[in-house]
Amino acid sequence: MRLATVRRADGSRAAVGDESGWVLLDEADAQELVSTPEWRDRADAALRHPARVSLAPDEFANPVPRPTKIFCCGLNYRDHIVETGRPVPEYPTLFAKFADTLTGPVDEIVVRDTDRLDWEAELAVVVGAEVYRADRDRARAAILGYAVANDISMRDWQQRTLQWLQGKAFDATTPVGPWIVTADEVDPSEGLRISCAVNGERMQIGDTAELVFDAADLVAYVSQITVLRPGDIVLTGTPGGVALGMAEPRWLRDGDVVTTEIERLGTLRNVIRFDEG
What we know:
Helices cover 14% and strands 34% of the residues.
């Protein structure tokens, strides 16, 4: 099952879909939908309805617009760890984002005050049930599903101090979507190809089976720190191939098109714009 938030003329709507198309529901977004009792029964019933709608790529918005928490794991693919020259970590390297950092799967990403803008294709894990101090099995059961993300990073801001937050939390710079594929449909630990291209040139290619800490590991670990609730997001890190790891970095420029794709989950396509004002 796919869960989406779609833009309509009269506002946003939650939608459920499969290979045959989409059904619009009454809720304003997918996060509101999965926060209601028995949402899965309603979604299953909707998908049994023969009437479906087709949706254009620009109708999809960030499916979870109001997460209470966004945790991100850095240095989590072995090849990316190697290109940074660091050892494989014993524990996840965590930092946070805010809801305002997120944007949609085809939205323009407008930035300013940076000349070292980088790409980071990522698997996003979306929480579907309240979970706190969970073991791996309970953490896995709390996962709603998975989406595509890109942690667009201002490396010059990120490297001003030892703390990464300021280079990772600019407003509307982390696209998520185009929808959530529910966890009963796909298991990233079995391996999904993840890639990022800039203007059609492949920069990153990896496999989610190469994560040091997989989705269940990360949800369990974060849940030792704080409660996670439906709609919260855990970003799982990026594979090798970022600009920062290049001998001569090729930073993103105005007008660049960043295409992020994860096998079976979908594709993001975001144009970079520099605000010179």
